[in-house]
């Protein structure tokens, strides 16, 4: 059974990277390292995979990476990090390093698309047709899954770089090296540190600057609700998971700003529309396993079609 297959996953994040081994969706081993240089980080991740491959073996590999990353299977750049503010990582050969010589199917996607896929397959979004996952961490990203497939186009969604309405009186210029006060430049981890002058985890909940952060988060949720009409928007990442008052206030403000325009979002339903993910801080690792399961399903489907032919 597919649920009993041993699967491997890599979550490559901006500050940490995790390799996981799972039987079905049950994680049975994991290794965590700091994200440093591409050579060191990818080299250590590959070592972990090689040990598991030789010791236990695994049927498929999923790679959930921070972006932007090329996801065109027909491109020479497939699985390569594109221009990124993370020093030294532009052009990093993620999939080439992690998959070369591995005799198993694999799939790569953004960490947020992967997290959305895990929540669609096993979590809050199960039995839904449209799931959005937003992470508030080192960066701000949005993953979209519709009818069980992550959303891709010329690239992948980059909602963190939307420039939306600013809160009245908020003069913070933003920290994004590309766009200044885009959403990532306003509420990512580095942006919050610049806003507060200290690490966000050390700032009390009653600091008035949080009101600006909440405003920006609501702007993002509202834009997504109006653009793609998902059934649920999940808020993950360190900031999203550890500040419950942000989510509570965001729900209230979202209903107010929408002004009854979307009939499925009201004071009675908004708590189900804007939620935390089921897998919490394991959303990334579980996303990598969900990608591995998708790769294995694809491989089996192709094999079945070939046998029938």
Explain this structure to me?
It is a single chain. By secondary structure, the protein is an alpha/beta fold. It has helices at 38-55, 94-99, 111-122, 183-187, 189-196, 210-228, 237-242, 244-258, 270-273, 283-308; strands spanning 6-12, 16-23, 26-34, 60-65, 106-110, 130-136, 140-146, 149-150, 232-236, 274-275. The strands form 2 sheets. It has a 5-stranded mixed β-sheet with strand order 3-2-1-4-5. A hairpin with a 3-residue loop joins strand 6 and strand 7 (140-146). The longest helix has 26 residues, at 283-308. The protein is globular, with a radius of gyration of 19 Å. The model has no long low-confidence stretch (mean pLDDT 93).
Quick recap:
The chain is an alpha/beta fold.
Order of helices and strands: EEEHEHEHEEEHHHEHHHEH
Portion of residues in beta strands equals 15-25%
Low-confidence stretches: none
Query: What is the overall pLDDT average?
Result: 93
Q: Sheet with the most strands?
A: 5 strands, mixed
- The backbone outline, from C-alpha atoms, is globular
Number of helices: 10
Record the SSE blueprint.
Blueprint: E1 6-12, E2 16-23, E3 26-34, H1 38-55, E4 60-65, H2 94-99, E5 106-110, H3 111-122, E6 130-136, E7 140-146, E8 149-150, H4 183-187, H5 189-196, H6 210-228, E9 232-236, H7 237-242, H8 244-258, H9 270-273, E10 274-275, H10 283-308
Parallel strand pairs: 1-4, 4-5, 6-9, 9-10
Antiparallel strand pairs: 1-2, 2-3, 6-7, 7-8
Helix pairs in contact: 3-10, 6-8
Features:
single chain; 309 residues; alpha/beta; five-stranded mixed sheet; 10 strands; globular
């Amino acid at each position: 059974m597919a649920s009993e297959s041993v699967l491997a996953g890599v979550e490559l994040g901006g500050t940490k990277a995790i390799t996981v081994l799972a039987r079905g969706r049950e994680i049975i081993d994991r290794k965590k390292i700091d994200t440093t240089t591409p050579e060191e980080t990818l080299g250590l991740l590959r070592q972990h995979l090689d040990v598991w491959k030789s010791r236990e073996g695994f049927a498929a590999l999923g790679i959930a990476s921070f972006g932007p990353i090329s996801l065109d299977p027909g491109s020479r750049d497939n699985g390569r990090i594109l221009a990124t503010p993370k020093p030294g990582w532009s052009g990093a050969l993620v999939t080439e390093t992690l998959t070369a010589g591995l005799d198993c199917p694999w799939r790569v996607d953004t960490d947020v698309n992967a997290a959305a896929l895990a929540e669609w397959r096993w979590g809050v979004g199960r039995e839904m047709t449209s799931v959005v996952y937003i992470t508030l961490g080192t960066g701000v990203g949005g993953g979209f899954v519709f009818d069980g497939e992550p959303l891709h186009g010329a690239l992948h969604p980059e909602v963190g770089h939307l420039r939306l309405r600013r809160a009245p009186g908020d003069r913070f210029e933003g920290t994004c090296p590309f766009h200044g006060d885009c959403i990532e430049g306003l509420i990512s981890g580095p942006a919050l540190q610049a806003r507060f002058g200290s690490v966000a985890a050390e700032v009390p909940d009653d600091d008035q600057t949080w009101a600006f952060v909440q405003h920006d988060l609501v702007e993002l949720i509202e834009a997504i609700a109006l653009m793609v009409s998902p059934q649920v928007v999940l808020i993950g990442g360190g900031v999203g998971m550890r500040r419950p008052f942000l989510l509570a206030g965001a729900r209230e403000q979202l209903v107010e700003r929408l002004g009854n325009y979307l009939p499925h979002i009201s004071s009675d339903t908004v708590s189900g529309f804007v939620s935390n993910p089921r897998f919490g801080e394991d959303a990334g690792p579980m996303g990598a396993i969900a990608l591995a399961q998708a790769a294995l399903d694809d491989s089996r489907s192709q094999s079945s079609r070939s046998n029938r032919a």
